[in-house]
Model the fold of this input.
Amino acid sequence: MLLQPPSGNPPPGDLTPHLNFPHMRSLEVQWVKQENEEFLHLRDPLGLTPGEVLVPGYLAPFLMLCDGEHNLATIRAALALYRGMELSADDLERLVQDLDEAIVLEGPKAQEAERKALAAYHLSPFRQPALADAAYPGDPTMLDQLLSAFCERYPTPQGAGGDASAPVVGILSPHIDYNRGHKVYAESWQAIAPALAECEQVIIFGTDHVGGPGKVTLTRQQYATPWGALQADRQLLSELTQALGEGDALEEELHHAKEHSIELAAVWLHYMLRRVKGKDSSFRSMPTVTPILCGNMFPYVRGDQDPGWDPTFTRMLEVLRRSTEQKRTLVVAAGDLAHVGPVFGDEQGWDLAARAKLRSADDASLDAMCRGDAQGFYQGLKAEQDGRRVCGITPIYLAMRLLGTDITGHRIGYDQCPADQEGASVVSIAGVVWRRKGP
Done:
């Protein structure tokens, strides 16, 4: 929907208290141009808004003040004083009414929409592949052909992945789209293919791009790919839920429905399992898969807290560690690295010199991963206040915490993928295979 400019007509009815202190939901916001006019494109990662929402660009200052801390009178005064925008009280009331109808604001309408979406998610027999026929073919045969073509074009470089006699225990996989990241995906997942033959369980930590600070989120739904559902470990899920508390563990469960990080790694996992075990392998012959979404680490990277003392992380890792001691396990960190350039809020574009510096900074993070140094990885990003916006920080950190220090990592692939048409913004990605030290 296109949010129309204020009409001057009186708003319908009285405003409820939550609209007098409008609070914009966690939406993805991008500038777009249509017919030489600039708009803010609001995209809802949870899919609650009815279609796309376009807001005229001149209303951007108004949206910035919709933080739940300012009432409409204060917003109106601030816009007039600092921006020279003269909006009547009726104009602002109509704006918030329209935003509320579009499920852009926190409040009863958003809560009801989320309740209905979660109920629909639970009614499905499994977590549906949200990106099928969008980011990759939904037809299983066509998807087989696509990933096979990637693997044929980009085999794992000889000698990459470390000593084949040391057991594979983990992998860093990108979660960028396959169109840009297929080379790193193909090289990384092929490197661990032999280890999947005897794998009994897979634990996937994925970035929750709209997750709360320090949140880890489970789901009761089995993930599915175009080839079918992946088997869940109900016992492990129950133990994790009990350790974390059901309210905390499942509070943001709906995020699993649309979040792409775990899905894009799970498709490659399922593809490689079918290559190793045979395309006709039964559901029960496959390893169980436990997907865990991970929120941001702002309180740690930009504050004084240390994630090593986080009680939620500690309780979860204790349960997972007991499970890994009983079963042959692959730990997956589905995370990208840097997000830099104007698209991500930087004032300047990233030229060749800036990209060389980015490569050096990424190398430092990858070195820490290869040492199995979770704390060093985190401290490096904290020292720079996460200036690279590494969106995979939480899943990578937690994967290494779970794997412990008795590991060695081996880089497989690195790329800086374009994030805008001008080539001024990039997302960096890499693959890492972790092996257990010793026999």
In short: The first strand starts at residue 28 and ends at 34. The radius of gyration is 23 Å. The longest helix spans residues 352-370.
